[in-house]
Specification:
Rossmann fold; ubiquitin conjugating enzyme activity; 4-stranded antiparallel beta sheet; Ubiquitin Conjugating Enzyme; ATP binding; ubl conjugation pathway; 7-stranded mixed beta sheet; 2 domains; 38% helix; alpha/beta; 14 strands; S-adenosylmethionine-dependent methyltransferase activity
Length: 445
């Protein structure tokens, strides 16, 4: 109950003691996110810029300093009366001059003209919107074609808050938000991992649609009056036409996205992860994951092979370990049992995910095995019923195959393991024994 009330205050602070405390919290913990959201927008002096959920005005103060041109204009919306009044007071000079205009309203019903905004930014905001698609439609309506929106968040904190039931439903998940943007006409939707002042955070980018070749109609809200993309109280929204794309278009989209992903992996990689291109073949990559501290893989360096399908990102990348790993969810051939490596309905891959997020998920899987969905049933059983033995063996394999002094033996040992895995139907005798113990157990393949 207390967590839910705190979540309500974070989403819509009121003029109360708890609302005042939340405002102090936002000013302290959102500073870096606000600064980077403004920075990543690359605001130009004469642009019209909009902040969603502006709170006490941290981001507004950063953005207004960049709008030095005579036509430069800063807009802000927040549906908390308390935050609206606080920001108005904090920027009263700019508001009085007409440089800044603030509105107390819902993001899904903004009193702004169609196609009027050049840049949009917000931080720690979207998870409080009750209807993501309604909000995305409205944001797309007010943005100019090809206008950029930047969202910043600290995913680790968001996950922590969600685990305490501070958010309602699943809207806090970045993939849910990104899918809502894509379904409402936004293009080039992607999430990148970044770091500023040693603080890791995520940035989500989206571009407002320009030309919409194939559309479906979605009911709009009565206040919307379209000039270009809205007609007769209805909005034209881009429809996923992936199945009609030819191979050349798929490859162009894949290669363009991969170049962007590889650039971010080289400049802002997730902690303990590296990835690079093999020769000039963009569809073949390799990656390395550093074994996590306080795990049996500590001190190890684990190499993975990555193959990118033609229809990426609409199909997941194919990944397998080249370094042997003693793990319930990784088999002798290096194959990995992980939901984000499979398409729905059995898997959880979405086009909004990327190589960086998958490698981070694998890194997490190494630290936190899932023995209930194993590839190696004998190791799974050992993990559950004899964890000391599991830890000892995993450490031994790490020392043998994944440490620098033994890395020269990895390829030869892996080939032996692969040959054994392809020639032997049940990979290990213990697998058959485990199947006898748990005959109804489904082994992930």
């Amino acid at each position: 109950m207390l967590s839910r009330k705190l979540g309500q205050q974070l989403g819509r602070p009121t003029q109360s003691l708890s609302g005042w405390l939340v405002s102090k919290f936002l000013m302290r913990y959102n500073q870096i996110l606000e600064e980077n959201a403004v920075k990543l927008c690359e605001i130009q002096p004469d642009e019209t810029v909009l902040e969603l959920g502006h709170g006490p005005g941290l981001g507004l103060r950063e953005a207004v300093q960049l709008l030095t041109g005579p036509r430069g204009k800063l807009l802000g919306v927040d549906y908390s009366n308390y935050m609206h009044h606080m920001a108005t007071k904090n920027l009263q000079g700019h508001v009085a001059s007409g440089k800044v205009a603030l509105y107390c309203c819902d993001v899904a019903a903004m009193p702004l003209e169609d196609n009027s905004v050049d840049k949009v930014f917000h931080c720690n905001c979207y998870y409080f919107w009750p209807d993501l698609k309604a909000a995305a439609l409205e944001i797309n309506r007010v943005m100019k074609p090809d206008a950029l929106m930047v969202t910043t968040l600290r995913l680790d904190r968001v996950v922590s808050f969600a685990s305490k039931n501070m958010f309602h439903g699943e809207n806090w998940r970045p993939e849910v938000y990104m899918e809502a943007l894509q379904s409402c006409g936004f293009a080039d939707v992607r999430m990148e991992n970044r770091t500023d002042k040693l603080i890791p955070f995520q940035a989500i980018y989206a571009t407002a649609a320009n030309i919409i070749p194939e559309t479906r109609e979605v009911e709009a809200f009565p206040h919307m009056r379209s000039k270009n993309r809205v007609s007769a109280g209805r909005i034209k929204v881009q429809q996923n036409s992936v199945q009609n794309c030819d191979v050349d278009e798929d490859n162009m989209q894949r290669n363009s996205r991969l170049k962007r992903e590889l650039h971010m992996l080289s400049t802002e990689p997730p902690p303990g992860v590296s990835c690079w291109q093999l020769d000039e073949r963009v569809e073949e990559l390799q990656a390395q994951i550093v074994g996590g501290a306080n795990t049996p893989y500590d001190g190890g360096l684990f190499t993975l092979e990555i193959k990118i399908p033609d229809r990426y990102p609409f199909e997941p990348p194919k990944m397998r370990f080249l370094t042997p790993v003693y793990h319930p969810n990784i088999d002798n051939a290096g194959r990995i049992c992980l939901d984000v490596l499979k398409l729905p309905p059995k898997g959880a891959w979405r086009p909004s995910l990327n190589i960086s997020t998958v490698l981070s998920s694998i890194q997490l899987l190494m630290a936190e095995p899932n023995p209930d969905d194993p590839l190696m049933a004998d190791i799974s059983s050992e993990f559950k019923y004899n964890k000391v033995a599991y830890l000892e063996k995993a450490k031994r394999w790490t020392a043998k195959y994944a440490t620098q002094k033994n890395k020269g033996h990895v390829e030869a040992d892996q080939k032996i393991l692969e040959d054994k895995s392809t020639k032997t139907a049940p990979k290990r005798e213990a697998l058959s024994a485990q199947e006898n113990v748990e005959p109804h157990k489904r082994v992930c393949m």
